[in-house]
Amino acid sequence: DSGVTQTPKHLITATGQRVTLRCSPRSGDLSVYWYQQSLDQGLQFLIQYYNGEERAKGNILERFSAQQFPDLHSELNLSSLELGDSALYFCASSTNPLGISYNGKQFFGPGTRLTVL
Amino acid sequence: DAKTTQPNSMESNEEEPVHLPCNHSTISGTDYIHWYRQLPSQGPEYVIHGLTSNVNNRMASLAIAEDRKSSTLILHRATLRDAAVYYCILTRVYNQGGKLIFGQGTELSVKP
Are A33 and A93 within 8 A, CB to CB? Predict the structure, then answer.
């Protein structure tokens, strides 16, 4: 158990709909990362937040957005869903991703499996 | 982002050492070398990381070439539970906050 929780575990929805995936980082971790894993694209970095602020952006579609709240949990919002958005979505957290305190570890949650029909 | 190259797959026998290679010829001075693994139906799991010197932890050892253009993850005694996809990743911490850019990885199978 990594200490990172993600809800829901599974989500089945239809094209055109909007969903919200939730992530609670490990206690004390300030940084949250979102990744998408699909069969054709592999594991892709989407976006990172650090203490409530967006830190880095990857291949995240404009239809997707994220935020990190004052209690440090994060939500990934996916809208106008398409069949190709079906994937596993992982959240990870780390203690301090910056500078001399960097310890190299990200802890991944169990993922949310999204199926778009 | 600097690129890494790994073999697509490797096989090992249980209780034997495994050496998983990774080439990263375009590595820069501030790139850390990370290894993560993903067991079936699970999220990725941190294995080890290093900058210039060899590193050991309870899971594995990381051997880094002197010129840093390649590295090897060493599992000292493979178990069936080590069957996973192993990812070698370079991370530029100071500029990019430690995001992980995954490649295809090496799928390790372990035979009893």
Answer: yes
Residues in contact with A54: Cβ distance below 8 Å, sequence separation at least 6, in sequence order: A47, A48, A66
Task: Specify the 3-state DSSP secondary structure of A101.
Answer: helix
Kindly write down the DSSP assignment for every residue of A36-65, as one continuous string: EEETTTEEEEEEEEETTEEEEE-S--TTEE
Size of interface A-B (CB pairs under 8 A): 70
Strand, coil or helix: A83:
helix
Neighbouring C-alpha atoms within 13 Å toward the C-beta of B1: 19
Q: A99: alpha, beta or left, given left = phi > 0 and alpha = psi -120 to 50?
A: left
pLDDT tens, position by position, A37-50: 998 888 999 999 98
Burial classification of residue B28, based on how many CB atoms lie within 10 Å of its CB (0-12 exposed, 13-18 middle, 19 or more buried): exposed
Asked if A47 and A114 count as a contact pair (C-beta separation under 8 A), the reply is: no
User: Does B98 contact A102 at a Cβ distance shorter than 8 Å?
Assistant: yes
A2 and B98 in contact by Cβ < 8 A?
no
Task: Reduce the secondary structure of B7-41 to three states and give it as a string.
Answer: CCEEEEECCCCEEEEEECCCCCCCEEEEEEEECCC
Distance CA B84, CA B40 (A): 7
Taking the C-alpha atoms of residue A19 and residue B47, their distance in angstroms, rounded to an integer, is: 32
Q: Do A90 and B44 touch (CB under 8 A)?
A: yes
Judging contacts by C-beta atoms under 8 Å, the chain B residues touching residue A36 are none
pLDDT tens-digit map of B53-77: 999 999 999 999 999 999 999 999 9
Give the other-Cβ count within 10 Å of A91's Cβ. 30
